[in-house]
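Preliminary data (for renewal application), NAI complex.
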Amino acid sequence: MNVIFPLTGIVGAGAMGRGIAQIAAQAGSRVLLFDTQAQACEAARAAIVAQWTKLQEKGRLDSDALDRLQQRLHCASSLDDLAGCDLIVEAIVERMDVKVALFTQLEQRVSERAVIATNTSSLSVTALGAQLRRPQRFAGYHFFNPVPLMKVVEVIAGLRTDPTVCESLAAYAHQMGHSPVQARDTPGFIVNHAGRGYGTEALRLVGEGVTDFATVDRILKDQVGFRLGPFELMDLTALDVSHPVMESVYHQYYEEPRYRPSVITAQRLAGGLLGRKSGEGFYRYSQGVADTPPEADAPVVSDGDMPPVWVSPRSTRRAELLQLLKQIGARIETGASPSAQALTLVAPLGFDVTTVAVVDRLDPARTVGIDLLIEDARTRRRVLATNPATRPDMRRAAHALMTRDGKPVSVIRDSGGFVTQRVVATIVNIASDMCQQGICSPADLETAVTLGLGYPMGPLAMGNLWGPANILEVLFNMQTVYGDPRYRPSPWLRRRGAIGLSLLHQEE
Ligand code: NAI
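Predicted structure:
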C-alpha cells in the first residue's frame, strides 16, 4: 500500500513533534524534522532512534527495518528544506501569532497541493486558516501525548478546509496506526470538550463540602470503573495544563455554566500545587507514589443495637435493595410507613435526601440515602448520604449494616445526585450536547473519549448502561434542587431519554 504522504515535514521537535515524526516514519513516509533550536531536532532524532532500538532489542523490529526507519528520518536545517513536502504538521509553541508567521513562510515554499496541518489543542483552526492564502489546504490534526501510545487523533476541518484534505489526513492516521475522529472546529474539539464533565463536577462536589477529594476519587473508581479518580487525573495532567484548558473552553463558549471552572484549581495553581510533577497536588507524592489519606474504619454496631430497616416505596432499584438487605441479614419492615425505631432508607435519583424526607413526610432524623443509579452488583463500593438532621446512631447503623458483606462504604453529606449520579449525568449530558451541536458523530465521540481520556466506556455507552431515562431524571431533579442551568438536560438527551432510545441510535 502506498503511503498517503510520502514526504512529511514536522515543525517543532518537542514532546509532540517527535512523537508525530516517529509514527509518520513508521507509516512509511520520509520525515523531515525542523525546529528553530537545531539541538532540539538532533535530540528528538536520537530519542526516536533510541525507541526503535529498544523495539529491536525486544525482537519486535529486525535490523533491516531499523535501518530503513533511520534512513527515513532526517533533520532539516532550514524551512527551505521542507519545500517538497506533501504534508507539514506544525507542533510549535501554542501562540496564534507565531503559528501564523510560520504558516505564511511555509506557504511561500510548498506546492499548492501540499497540506499544512496544526497540532493546536486550543486555537481555532478557522481563525488560523483565515490568515493563510490557501485555507482549503489547511486543517487541524490534534494528537495526544505521548503520541505513539495515545492512539487517537482529531482531524479538524476549519470552515474553509477542503473535505478531501480531512479524508487524506484520516487515511494517513490509519497508516500511522491511529484512530482518526472527525471534529468540527469548536472549542476543545472532542476530547477536551467531552472531558469537561469529570473534573469540573468533581470540583463542585468538593467545593460544596459534600465530601473530600480522596473520597470522590474512591467512589468514581469503585462505582463507575474509572481507572483514575478526577483528582488523581488532575494531579497527573498538572494544573498548569488542566486549569487553563477549563478556563479556555468556558470562555470560548461565552461562559456556558456547564463548563464553569473552579476556584479550587485556580487557587492551587497560584499556590504551585500543580500535581505529581511539583511533588504535591491534591495528593502528596514521595518518589512518585501518592500518599493517599486512609479511609476511616466502618463503625461496629451490635446486633442488639441494629434498628429494623424500612425502604421507601419510591426508591430506585427497590427490589434489588430489599434483596441485598435480606442477604446481609437486616430486619426489614414491610409496613406502609416506618415504625418509630426504623432506619429509613431512600434511594433517589437527582433529589437530595432532605427533599425526599420532606416530600414523603419521613422523619429526617432516621433517614439515610443510598446511591443506586448503578446496580449494586456492578459496584465495588456503596455510597450513603445523610441529611443535616440524621441522628449519629442512625448514620452509624446504616454504615455498619451496609458493610456487613465486606463491601466498602463511603458516607457523604447530602447533595442532590450523590457523587456518581452527578458526575455520570454531567458527562452524559455534555456528550449529548456535543451530538446536538453536531460537533462529531456519536461513534467518533465514543472512540475519542475512550482512547483520549481512558474512560472505561464512551459517555453515550455509559448513559445507555445506566439508562437514558434515569440520567434524565437525575438532571431534571438536580435542576430542581439547585435551580442551576448547568444541569439543564440537552434536548438531544431529552428526546432519546423520553422515548427510551439508545444514545448510540443514529437519527436519519
Ligand atoms: P514543546 O515545548 O515540547 O515543543 C515545542 C518545540 O517547538 C520546541 O522544541 C521549540 O523550540 C519549537 N519551536 C517554537 N517555535 C518555533 C518556530 N517558530 N519554528 C520552529 N520551531 C519552533 O511543545 P509540545 O508540548 O510539543 O506542544 C507543541 C504543540 O502541540 C502546541 O501547539 C501544543 O498546544 C500542542 N499539543 C500539546 C500537547 C501536549 O500534551 N504537550 C497535546 C496536544 C497538543
